[in-house]
Task: inverse folding
């Protein structure tokens, strides 16, 4: 379990780095100390979103099936979470948004197998629950990310010329 937590933390930091560094390149006046302070917090948020993905998919599956599935729920394993460590490289907007999306589709397909086995939904039903959960969490974190960027950009003083 501790290996999964460490991998999720590194994956969250990796994802946050891949999302924040391009913003730095696009905003030369952004204070480096502000970014250095935001990076660990953003990494924790991304790690929490990754950690919530299987739980959210399990909750959706419980709503779809007629009787509650046995077991405690769906969880990460080191083999399932390890590909998320690639997300820093693939999150850079100019290097590969399609590869980034394919990475998450692959990880989601990996989550669909144990969800289908645990709930009896069938693979496509489980994949739908995983996809809806991932998309919902992705939209939520992107909204928060844009809000933080907007707030931090409004607080950043303009350089005096």
Result:
């Amino acid at each position: 379990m501790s290996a999964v937590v460490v991998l999720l933390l590194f994956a969250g930091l990796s994802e946050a780095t891949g999302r924040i560094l391009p913003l730095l390149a696009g905003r030369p006046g952004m204070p480096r100390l502000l970014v250095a302070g935001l990076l660990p917090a953003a990494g924790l948020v991304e790690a929490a979103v990754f950690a919530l993905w299987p739980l959210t998919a399990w909750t959706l599956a419980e709503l779809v099936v007629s009787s509650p599935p046995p077991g405690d729920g769906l969880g990460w394993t080191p083999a399932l979470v390890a590909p998320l460590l690639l997300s820093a490289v693939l999150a850079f907007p100019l290097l590969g948004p399609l590869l980034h999306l394919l990475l998450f589709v692959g990880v989601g397909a990996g989550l669909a197998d144990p969800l289908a086995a645990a709930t009896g939904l069938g693979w496509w039903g489980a994949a739908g629950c995983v996809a809806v959960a991932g998309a919902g969490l992705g939209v939520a974190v992107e909204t928060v990310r844009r809000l933080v960027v907007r707030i931090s950009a409004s607080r950043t003083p303009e350089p005096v010329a």
The first helix runs from residue 2 to 26. Residues 66 and 121 are 10 Å apart (CA to CA). The chain has six helices and no strands.
